[in-house]
Amino acid sequence: MNLTPAVVLLLTWVSVCAAHFMSLPFSPARGLPWQHKSFGKLLEPCRPIGERLQRPIQPLLKPHKRPIRDFRLNATTRDIKLANYYDNLYYAPITIGTPGQTFNVAFDTETPITWVPSIHSPPRQIFRRITKKYNNESSSTYKANGKPFEVSYGPGLVLGYRSQDNMAIAGATVHNQTFGEAILEPKMFAGSMIDGVFGLGFSGINAGEELPVFDNMIMQGLLPAPVFSFYVKKYDSDGPESVLTLGGTNPDYYTGDFIFANLSMPDRWQFEIDRIQLSNDVGTSCLYKCQAVVDTGTSFIVGPSHEVEGLNEMLGAKPRAGDPKLYTLDHSQLDSLPDLEFIVNGQKLTIASKDYVSKGEKSGQYYSGIVGKEFKEGERPVWFLGFSFLRTYYTQFDKVKRRVGFAKAS
Ligand SMILES: *[C@@H]1O[C@H](CO)[C@@H](O)[C@H](O)[C@H]1NC(C)=O
Ligand SMILES: *[C@@H]1O[C@H](CO)[C@@H](O)[C@H](O)[C@H]1NC(C)=O
Ligand SMILES: *[C@@H]1O[C@H](CO)[C@@H](O)[C@H](O)[C@H]1NC(C)=O
Ligand SMILES: *[C@@H]1O[C@H](CO)[C@@H](O)[C@H](O)[C@H]1NC(C)=O
Q1: What is the pTM of this model?
Q2: Which residue intervals define the domain Peptidase A1 in the entry (predicted)?
Q3: 281 is a catalytic site residue
Q4: Closest-CA residue to 210 (of 65, 51, 52, 396)
Q5: How far is the CA of 262 from the centre of ligand 4 (A)?
Q6: 87 an active-site residue?
Q7: Are the C-beta atoms of 104 and 92 separated by less than 8 Å?
Q8: Active site residue: 108, 165, 274, 398, which one?
Q9: Ligand 4: which of 258, 259, 260, 262 to mutate, most ligand atoms within 8 Å of CB?
Q10: Closest ligand to 141 CA?
Q11: Closest CA to ligand 3's atom 9
């Protein structure tokens, strides 16, 4: 990654990798350049999603070998307040081990495994200012596992091995949880506000991998339902702090009914969109349906370059000189911008222009938050609905009904 001026190191992973306007928090990037909030630097893409998309696609109906079941429906939902780092990164503490070692983690619906840095990582490999590392020697509940893991974040891999220990989150203790001890991390994590990533994606249960934390919480009777939900607050808005609810939804954070979409992939929070359009008949995209992923590792709305180019043209946004994946807008255009609408199951999800337009803090330049990504040949293009979508729509993720649901955030 060709970024990291020294100052950036003070900031988050995300900020390294993202920016208010264009921050694709972690995974983000999912293959985009963006501008750093405070420095106006163009950063390289963080994570091409290619690897994931190129995994063999399993037939949707193939049953999982280990379906989640056996709920003991006697627990209440658990709310976790999320710290908001300039709308780029939302994170909270978890502890691992006995006594507990605390780590700040971001919650990523596209990461399968939960990982934190290992005490056994070579000192030079993890360039953090404040490094918290899991120390297996000082936990009485540690059990070795040793199987390798890796997660790809664009320009680099997080590599390490698996271990097992108790993990505490939101007052619940998950026993015998397998997690990743990271030995190598890409530089993008240097100086980040977060130590690791809490995986809310699907791990390869079909491939015989261990259950993710959320699934174990269900299996161990710690949650009343196999559902989690995000309320994501804008940094400078009033209103309650951002919250992740484990075990269901919290009506304090949304109004009205949910619009549901069944998952279209066995191992991803992916669903079908009928159409994408701009209000007032300004234009349409995704004419023959398309696929989208709800992604808590992306700040913006990211789509295939050609579709994004069309939408931005209709908005009157211009490709940024030297970086045609980003589109700029003039202040004079802002008042007349249409809403961005996603039609899902015949119903409309609406993002107002104030929520998809961002202002570069330093440059004062306005940007369209609809950002293009090139997909490699053979890759199936998808849209990524990141925080700018989640700030408008409270979203629930249901692992057993295998669907996502959207309600207006309050
Ligand atoms: C801690 O982990 C290291 C590296 O995997 C291993 O060599 C060591 O035996 C472990 N310590 C305990 C107490 O199991
Ligand atoms: C965790 O592992 C220990 C020892 O292997 C076992 O006694 C305990 O029942 C396990 N707990 C759960 C919830 O699986
Ligand atoms: C709730 O579940 C726990 C196990 O997770 C069990 O020990 C407890 O008895 C249950 N309580 C009720 C009221 O069913
Ligand atoms: C979603 O899945 C459920 C259960 O599999 C099914 O009953 C329902 O008809 C599906 N909805 C749509 C819109 O396909």
Answers
A1: 0.82
A2: 90-407
A3: no
A4: 65
A5: 6
A6: no
A7: yes
A8: 108
A9: 262
A10: 2
A11: 74
What is the CA(308)–ligand 3 centre distance, in A?
Answer: 50
Q: Which amino acid is it at 270?
A: Q
Domains 71-231 and 249-409 are alike in CATH topology: yes
Determine the Cα–Cα distance for residues 80 and 302; give it in Å rounded to an integer: 27
Q: Half-sphere exposure (CA, 13 Å, Cβ side) for 245?
A: 24
Name the active-site residue from 87, 295, 355, 398: 295
pLDDT in 10s for each residue of the chain, 410 residues:
222 222 222 222 332 233 323 333 433 333 332 322 222 222 223 332 223 323 333 333 333 444 444 455 556 899 999 999 888 889 999 999 999 999 999 999 999 899 999 999 876 555 555 668 999 999 999 999 999 999 988 667 899 999 999 999 999 999 999 999 999 887 777 767 889 999 999 986 555 578 899 999 988 889 988 999 999 988 778 888 999 999 999 999 999 999 999 999 988 999 999 999 999 889 999 989 999 999 998 888 999 999 999 999 999 999 988 777 789 999 999 999 999 999 999 999 999 998 999 887 777 889 999 999 888 888 889 999 999 899 999 999 999 899 999 999 98
Nearest-atom index, ligand 3, CA of 221: 5
Cα distance between residue 59 and residue 61, in whole Å: 6
- Each domain of the chain, given as residue ranges in start order, spans 71-231, 249-409
220 pocket-lining for ligand 2 (C-beta < 6 Å): yes
CA of 143 to the centre of ligand 1 (A): 9
CATH of 71-231, one of 3.50.30.20, 2.60.120.10, 2.40.70.10, 3.40.50.2300: 2.40.70.10
Q: Topology of domain 249-409, per CATH?
A: Cathepsin D, subunit A; domain 1 (2.40.70)
- Ligand 4 centre from 403 Cα, in Å? 9
Task: Read off the tokens for 260.
Answer: 């549901």
The alpha carbon of 42 is separated from its chain's Cα centroid by a whole number of angstroms, namely: 21
Ligand 1 proximity of 136 Cβ (cutoff 6 Å)? yes
Q: What does the chain come to in residues?
A: 410
Cα separation, 385 vs 391, whole angstroms: 10
